[in-house]
Amino acid sequence: MAFFALSPAIHEEIVFRLFILSFCLYLLRYSRHPQSGIAISLVLAVVPHSLNHVPDLFLKQPLSALFLFGGTSIVFGLPMALI
């Protein structure tokens, strides 16, 4: 029962973290600037994931949506992408 409740969150993490990070790091593996490649990969893994949680709020309250987007990106998105 708990597995079915956690299944959407697990799939979301797999899609937005594992696949995007792995694909970006694979494409940038021979880059001359590996640190910038890692930073770009983290941004590409965090931004779509955070934007996925506030789509309707951007239409109703854009300033609040930007604050929530920034907060979720920093508090939840970045640490999970780094792990």
Automatic annotation (TrEMBL):
Highest taxon in the source lineage: Bacteria
Alphabetically ordered keywords of this record: Membrane, Transmembrane, Transmembrane helix
This protein's name: Membrane spanning protein
Residue spans crossing the bilayer: 6-28, 63-82
